[in-house]
Design a protein that fits this description.
Shape: elongated
Radius of gyration: 16 Å
Largest sheet: none
Number of strands: 0
Number of helices: 5
Order of helices and strands: HHHHH
Distance between the termini: 22 Å
């Protein structure tokens, strides 16, 4: 089994678990979490492809940091857009709540942290 699939499957399970504790979770919400986890899997695989294809680990530290931060910011923005589309597709989008500045900022921050943690793990696993 792919380590990324296991990790992101765990991510989905933890999110579903905590969502069910706070307010309960419907079958529709469950599938939305599964689709979001699949999006994380696809986006991290795409990022891994970019890192390998363009030899990021051969760059100097400053250039690596700048490119990594820019890539993580871009992934975070795309992730928030994906969350909105997923919620729209599953009928769980609440525009009055989901489009508040604070909610979007928190989603961007949490997405950035998830991707940054993934990149750090990938970097340390990929070291020779």
């Amino acid at each position: 089994m792919d380590v990324a699939a296991l990790g992101l499957g765990s991510f989905a399970f933890v999110n579903i678990f905590f969502a069910s504790l706070s307010q309960g979770i419907s079958a529709v919400q469950l599938w939305a979490f599964v689709v979001l986890a699949a999006f994380y899997l696809i986006s991290t695989h795409a990022m891994r492809h970019v890192v390998k294809s363009y030899g990021w680990f051969k760059m100097g530290i400053f250039r690596l940091l700048v490119q990594t931060i820019l890539a993580l910011l871009a992934l975070s923005v795309v992730n928030v857009l994906a969350q909105i589309l997923i919620n729209l597709a599953f009928g769980t989008l609440n525009p009055n709540e989901d489009f508040r500045s604070l909610v979007i900022a928190v989603n961007l921050f949490v997405s950035f942290l998830y991707y940054a943690f993934w990149f750090l793990l990938y970097f340390f696993i990929s070291l020779p």
